Amino acid sequence: MSGVHLGRKLLLEAPRRVPDGAGGYSENWEVLGELWADVRSRTGRERNESGVVVSSVGYRIVVRGAPHGASARPMPNQRFRDGARLFVIRAVTERDANGRYLTCFADEEVVA
Question: How far apart are CA 25 and CA 18, in angstroms?
Fold first, then answer.
């Protein structure tokens, strides 16, 4: 498929609830695997949350396709990690009719 260059290695992470021993839980992130991706920025915006400026940039992240239910298939509310950078996945769709590639729409937020 033209235009796809899977040249960036990302970690795929999923949230896991861990009991805190007091009836509640804490949320940890579990690494599901490494995926090669084509990462392209879309649009950005800035907003004020409780006096803190938060910059948010949208990304289109393309990875190889994987069957539904496979741990290598990204899902909404999971995230990609590239070092200290985090990309929260908002939606996932097949890029082509054969499902060879998946397009993940993700947001990266940075607190200024």
Answer: 5
Q: CA 41 → CA 61, 79, 84, distances in Å?
A: 9, 16, 17
Structure tokens at 49: 């949350």
For the chain, 112 residues long, give each residue's pLDDT as a single digit of tens: 467 899 999 999 999 998 888 888 888 999 999 999 999 999 888 888 888 888 888 999 999 999 888 989 999 999 999 999 999 999 999 998 888 999 999 999 776 6
Helix (H, G, I), strand (E, B) or coil at 31: strand
41 Cβ neighbours under 8 A, 6+ residues apart: 57, 58, 59
pTM: 0.84
Choose among 83, 62, 72: nearest CA to 7.
62
Q: What one-letter code names the amino acid at 26? A: S
